[in-house]
Design a protein that fits this description.
Largest sheet: none
Number of helices: 5
Region (Disordered): 1-41, 68-88
Biased composition (Basic and acidic residues): 15-26, 74-86
Helix content: 40-55%
Strand content: under 5%
Order of helices and strands: HHHHH
Number of strands: 0
């Protein structure tokens, strides 16, 4: 059974009037996020800094891959952990035992 298209033809072609505001294009969430951010002009100094960071990162990764360098890198980047309490606080906290024993064998 053929469709009856006479109703659509009677209405005529739909033309957009200039009065209606234009609809904004459908954007993905990522595109909306990008549109919110101000555009950054990349300068020569920024490129050089990025290149230098990449060079340092590659050097660091090359060190990690080389045999035995993990310990060297860890040692170079290690920060000593400070004691949580001072010796005086430890002595005061343990009044029943007294000061910390000098040797492990002297503990009771």
């Amino acid at each position: 059974m053929p469709r009856d298209t006479s109703k659509n033809e009677a209405a005529g072609p739909t033309e957009k009037s200039d009065d209606e505001p234009k609809k904004e294009p459908i954007m993905s969430r990522a595109a909306r996020r990008r549109a919110k951010k101000p555009q950054v002009t990349v300068t020569l100094e920024m490129r050089q800094a990025a290149r230098e960071r990449l060079r340092e990162l590659r050097r660091h990764l090359r060190l990690l891959k080389s045999n035995g360098a993990r310990r060297k890198v860890a040692k170079a980047e290690a920060k000593k952990r400070e004691r949580e309490t001072t010796e005086a606080e430890e002595v005061c906290a343990r009044l029943d035992v007294g000061a910390r024993p000098l040797k492990k064998s002297r503990r009771e």
